[in-house]
Amino acid sequence: MSLLKVRDVVTAYGKIEALKGVSLEVAQGSITCLLGPNGAGKTTLMMSIAGILRPRKGTIHFGGEDIAGRPPHAIVARGVALVPENRLVFPSMTVLENLNAGAYQRGDKQAIAEDIDKLFARFPRLRERAAQQAGTLSGGEQQMLAVARALMSRPKLLLMDEPSLGLAPLVVEEIFRIVTELHKDGTTIFLVEQNAHMALKVAQHFYLMEQGKVSFSGTPGALAEDEVIHRAYLGSSKI
Amino acid sequence: MSDLAQNTLDGLFLGSSYALLALGFTLIFGVLRRVNLSFGPAVMFGCYAATWVNLNFGAGLVLLALVTILGSILAGAYVERLCFAPHRGGSAIAAMVASFALWMQFEELASIVLPRHLYDFPPLHGGAPLAFGAMTLRIESLVMLFAALLMCALLWWILYRTRFGVAVRAVIDQPQAAQLAGINVPRVFMLTFALASAIGGLAGFLIAASHEQVTPMLGMWSTMKGLLAMMLGGLGSLPGAVLGGLALGLLEAHSQWFFGPQNRDLIAYALIFILLAARVPWMTTRSAS
Amino acid sequence: MAKAALLLILSVLPGLALAQAPKADLACKATGTDFVFDCTIRLSRGGKPLEGAQVTVGADMPSMPMAHNVKPVKAQAAHAPGEYRAKLDLEMLGVWAVKLRLAGPVRDQLILHYEFDSKGATPAKR
Amino acid sequence: MDDYAIGVLTNIGLISFLALSAYLLLITGEMSFGQQAFFGVGAYAGGMLTAMYGWSLPLAALCAMALGALAQFLVGLPTLRLRGLYFAMATLAAAEMARILFELFHFQRQLEGEPVGPDGSQGFRGIRWVFEHGVEPLEYLGMVYALLALALVAFLLVERSRLGATLRGVGEDAELAASLGVNVTRVKLGVAAAAGALAALGGVLYAHHNTYIEPRNFDIMLGVHSLAYALIGGLGTALGPLLGVVLDIGALEGSRVFQGYRMIVFGGLVALLLIWRPRGLLDERAVQWLRRRFS
Fold first, then answer.
1. What was the pLDDT predicted at D21?
2. For a 10 Å CB count at each end of chain B, is N or C smaller?
């Protein structure tokens, strides 16, 4: 049963169509990964799902309801949370305030406090920096804070847009460890990633995107890894 | 010596009205990153609405204050819908020039509704000012100072102790992240605009009451003073707005005493120019496209 | 246009030709309808009343005179010599710069500042 | 055409210099709230030279333009590194200082028993060079538009040349322009001087058209209007600001039928127009489209 069904979505910036009719599905409880060269439209798709961008055509069914074109706050209310590209923390607010902002739509004070404790357990470095301004954190720490903040809204579907971007290899390892842990706890994850090698190790299903269209869909074994990496970085140009 | 003290008192009184205006300006600038040239005229609209009510029906001070604040909020909402909502993702200059166009509307509307050049406005307290030795302190000054401090405390409580405050600060800090955190950003813009207009309305009421008159120039005057106080205190910083307002008030009171009224404004503008040119840190930290 | 360009080149040399400037004063009273005033203008030149001039009367606000102004009207010669009458329809009260454009025997322009209130107009003291 | 129509057209012509001055700064990325001050410098300087010292109008205009250029250069120097709203506020402060200095400026000469010259807030009466030299209103109109045509030709030439690209480059991204070898400081100061001269020329022409100037003519209203002209008309070409002035003063004259409600109607129209075209009618896209169709 798929939690997210994207059908023929077209999103454009002015006249330029970044997405030329994208269709894909994310199965309930899975880690689904989206690979593709720069400019393939991966981030545009993420932003279209999260409501930051309004698709021109097509539908996005989440839990049976079409959320295409709905404002971001309505989509978050339905249980979709996006960890955006290059993190976007609230720089002059403290780590704790960032987490509280993530739980903006929730009223249950007690449960929010519990969630914060659980997240501090999962991200010990964030507990150390709780009172620190988010802008002063390192790249890896900000990435963890962005993930934690997204989790504060208790999402059914977690969208992650290139969480490993610009991070040291050790930190990337830790990010993927967290992704597998979240998956074990039952969170459905839709992951956009440049690091094809790492992504294919954790994903149960993956899609390849090129020039605004899905060019391949399958399980990690379905395509030889080098073929995938080749098409993920260089597109499907025949040499 | 007592002149110095008297000027300082007058400066604090004047400065607290500027601080209130600057708070309204800074809230809008902080959240929207836009300058609202119709901020002063919206306040004038509120004061004119109250004056009109007072002329036709006669009303108590509390009711007049309410009418002023509601009038300012109404005018502010009109400006937000026509000048700032449509240009959210667009250019700051277009929004600002649009707000200038509405300024023209407010001024002409004011001169149609109440054509006379000057209308009197009931004072807060008819009696004689309090006297301590050689110094006199008008009740309006005390009320103005108290209102400014009260408004700062209230704003601080709203921003740091309420859910709406979290939303406002989040939108100020990173608008897209705020959207992703599930904050209804357009609604935050409207509510912040209303809050800023309410603060402006309160300032307008107190200014009109302490001058005991309302003139069409109130729109330009409050826009300029609010803008300058905001600049002096550091663009987009709320505590800065209050400090900037008080500093401007003190500067004007003292320079008026020593150099006369016209030189007062000259000195205020000269100081702002020099501080901007010297790129003093607190004034130029926040980028303003 | 050719004459304008010629004029441009010809008159580069400084010259001090200061023709006798006409004088004027204004007496206006409100007519009851909003912002409309009945004005009599007394024109004189070198102490003698200036007769037979075509006078058009306009008014500008001090701030943004090019935009905040009133459409000029032609004044009619009144019975007394050097006196002209005009009905001035202002859009709002306050200080206006009344602009008199003279044509005929002398071509000139005068600007007088008057404060207009609900009763009439008094010379503006600034 | 009766005097009234000539008067309106002349106003449109001389205000266009102010609009071009604000436009020139806008395309190099600088939003100035202060062009009215240099308009005032031109008006006072030009007026004094003709009315008090008997200079001819063309010579006085040239000198006034030089003074306007120098004034804006001096304001530009300390504000070189300011950007966006900070630059706008600095120019606003400088312009208000100029206005107040005009209020304090009393300097008169006795000519034939009459005091002639600026008298502080009473203003400066009797700039009658045009009437003393028998210049017909139509001729004055011709002169204003001849000069305006000259300025326009210069603008259109510059906009097509490398210099035009440099200006817009500095406007789009000064750091990037610098990295490509553009001396941003020299460009900004050059633009400041040119803008000051343009505004001053407008001022001289205004002073001699109106025969009377006062400090309140050069207040913040005029400054923000000069920005509005460029923005309503369009930032794509030098014709944009002119279109803005025609729309502003033309529409205002045309909408006399609304009598006391002109500003309300006009203000609303401007706000709606900006929603539809945030960079004005003749914005960059419109100009590209027009160039494609007609070239």
1. 96
2. N
CB–CB of C35 and B115 under 8 A? yes
C73 touches chain B (CB under 8 A): no
pLDDT in tens, D50-76: 999 989 999 999 999 999 999 999 999
Contacting residues of D for B86, CB less than 8 Å apart = 275
- Residue C7, pLDDT > 70, answer no
What value does the mean pLDDT take over residues A77-105? 91
For residue C34, the chain B residues in CB contact (below 8 A) are: 115
Residue with tokens 């391949």: A216
Contact flag for A and C (3+ C-beta pairs < 8 Å): no
The H-assigned helical ranges of chain D are 3-27, 35-51, 57-76, 84-104, 129-132, 137-160, 162-172, 174-179, 184-210, 220-233, 239-245, 251-254, 262-276, 284-294
Average pLDDT over residues B207-236: 87
Rounded-to-integer distance, Cα B186 and Cα B88, Å: 9
Complex-level ipTM: 0.78
Q: Copy the structure tokens of residue B48.
A: 């004119």
Structural domain containing residue C110: 20-123
**Strand A157-161 relative to strand A188-192: parallel, antiparallel, unpaired?**
parallel
d(CA B173, CA B166): 10
CA dihedral B74→B75→B81→B85, nearest 10 degrees, is: -110
For residue C14, being part of any structural domain is answered with no
Structural domains in chain A plus CATH codes: 2-88+154-234 (3.40.50.300)
Question: Please, are residues D212 and D125 in contact by the beta-carbon 8 Å criterion?
Answer: yes
Per the listing, tokens 């809230």 go with B27
User: Do C22 and D158 touch, CB atoms closer than 8 A?
Assistant: no
Which residue's entry shows tokens 């009377």? D212
Q: Do the two chains D and C touch, given a threshold of 8 Å on CB pairs and at least 3 pairs?
A: yes
**Token couple for D230:** 């460029």
Token pair recorded at residue A24 = 């894909």
Kindly state whether B182 is in contact with chain C, defined as any CB-CB distance less than 8 angstroms.
Answer: no
- Residue C18, pLDDT score: 47
**Contact between D96 and B284 using a beta-carbon 8 Å cutoff:** no
CA distance A79 to D222: 53
Determine the residue among B107, B111, B114, B119 to mutate to test chain C binding: the one whose Cβ has the most chain C Cβ atoms within 10 Å: B111
What is the per-residue pLDDT for A112? 93
pLDDT of residue A239: 46
**CATH number for the domain whose boundaries are B2-284:** 1.10.3470.10
Alpha carbon D213 to chain centroid, angstroms:
16
Q: Supply the pTM of this predicted model.
A: 0.83
Q: pLDDT tens digit string along C87-107?
A: 888 877 788 888 888 887 778
Give the three-state DSSP class for D29.
coil
Interior angle at CA A78, CA A72 and CA A80, nearest 5: 65
**Best mutation target, D89, D101, D258, to test chain B (most B CBs within 10 A):** D89
Please report the DSSP string for C86-120 in residue order.
EEEE-SS-EEEEEEEEEESSS-EEEEEEEEE-SSB
- Close Cβ partners of A92 (under 8 Å, ≥ 6 residues apart): A133, A134, A135, B173
In this prediction, residue C4 carries a pLDDT of 57
What is the end-to-end Cα distance of chain C in Å, rounded? 41
Q: Which of A76, A90, A153 sits opposite B170 (nearest CB)?
A: A90
Domain ranges of chain B: 2-284
Instruction: Give pLDDT tens digits for C60-86.
Output: 887 777 777 788 888 888 888 888 999
Cβ distance of A84 and B182 shorter than 8 Å: no
- B174 SS3 class: coil
Query: What domains are defined for chain D?
Result: 3-293 (1.10.3470)
Give yes or no for a contact between B21 and B226, defined as CB atoms under 8 angstroms apart: yes
